[in-house]
Each structure stands twice: as C-alpha cells, then as structure tokens.
Amino acid sequence: MFTLPELPYAYTALAPYIDEATMHVHHDKHHATYVKNLNDVLAGQDALLVLPVETLLADLSRVPEAIRTKVKNNAGGHANHSLFWEVMAPHAGGVPTGAILTAINATFGSFQKFQEQFSTVALNHFGSGWAWLVSDHGKLAITDTANQDSPLSDGKTPILTIDVWEHAYYLKYQNMRVEYIKAWWNVVNWVEVEKWFATFVS
C-alpha cells in the first residue's frame, strides 16, 4: 500500500512565500487523493502495491493496460508531490554550492541562466503540470510535463521540480503564476537537491 508522506516541516514553515492554507489543501487533499486513488486502482495487484512508486512509473508496461492510465496519473501525482515537498524548506533558497552548482554552471553557463531558463519553462507551461531539472542519462536538462506525468516514465531522473497546477498557488497568487515562481525560489532546498544529484547523477 502507498502512504501519504508527512510534510518535512510545519504547514506554516514556507510562509510568506507559500501560505499555510495552500499547504493544507495541497498536501492533505490533493496529494492524499492521489495516494487513495492509486491504492484503489491497484487493489488486488499485490505485486505492484509493494513496488516503490518510482519503480512503478519507470516501467508502466508491467501494469495491466486496462488500468495503466489511472495508475500513471495517480502514481505520478504521488511521486511528483513527494519530491516537491522534499525540495523545499524554510530559510532556504539562494545559490547552491558544491557539485550541483558546478554541474549547473557547466550545463547552463551560470546559475542565473539556469534560473531564468527554469522559470521560463515553468511560466510558459500551458495548463496544469510541472517544470523539472532532471538527469537525462547523466546530463542535466530542464523539461516540463503535463498533468501528473513523470519524467521517470521517459527514462529521466527528477532532481528538482515546481508544481504549476493552479492549486499550488491560486489561494495566494490567484492567476499570477509569475509571482509564485519568483517566490518559490526562496524556498528551494538546495541541500536536498544536492543529495538527489549525488545519488542519481554521480
């Protein structure tokens, strides 16, 4: 069975950038619903219920075709949100250090250029979805996915993500996605991103 992870900080911890009300709705309702739906659709599929959600998404061919779309959507919603909570933290943001900064500079020219490119992808994504920093066979890349699709299903490893579904920001920022993206950089947990980078890239 899949379970809803606890937030690694208080619901108020990311304020003023992400407000308490949004965190409650986003985590307790949206993410929780993806977990419930995933367990429901996989009822009786014991071999699949014990897999890590990342493993499930990386090879959806093992899922019966009749339920594959529902599994993709809800497993993606679970995995995407689980990473999203982890790559944010209070008193965070700023410029990363160490190997992740070296890789960002080598790939994008500078951290500022990376930040601009990532923000542009997030801002210009049409409709609901996500922007990502991924490892694509060991090389950093910026991409976006629609709805709850996961880069894992395309053979890419997520390292950093921002949720650009309206429920992620509408209570505080209304339709101003650009303001939400600007604010979000203040809560990026580069220590955690560095851990993901070291695990999956090096």
Question: How would you characterize the overall build of this protein?
Answer:
The protein has helices at 20-41, 46-49, 53-58, 65-86, 98-108, 111-124, 170-173, 177-184, 190-200, and strands spanning 129-136, 139-146, 157-163. The protein folds into 2 domains: 20-86, Helix Hairpins (Orthogonal Bundle); 98-200, Iron/manganese superoxide dismutase, C-terminal domain (minor pseudopilin epsh fold), CATH 3.55.40. The longest helix has 22 residues, at 20-41. The chain is mostly helical and 202 residues long.
Helix content: 40-55%
| Count of individual beta strands | 3
CATH superfamily of the largest domain: Iron/manganese superoxide dismutase, C-terminal domain
User: Any idea what the radius of gyration is?
Assistant: 17 Å
Write the H/E string, N to C: HHHHHHEEEHHH
Characterize the main sheet.
3 strands, antiparallel
Number of helices: 9
Number of domains: 2
- Helix and strand composition category: mainly alpha
Largest sheet, spatial ordering of strands: 2-1-3
Instruction: Compute the average pLDDT.
Output: 96
Q: Under the CATH scheme, which class of the largest domain?
A: Alpha Beta
CATH architecture of the largest domain: 3-Layer(bab) Sandwich
Query: In the CATH scheme, what's the topology name of the largest domain?
Result: minor pseudopilin epsh fold
Shape: globular
Strand content: 5-15%
Terminal CA distance reads 31 Å
Which residue ranges are poorly predicted, with pLDDT under 50 across at least 5 consecutive positions? none
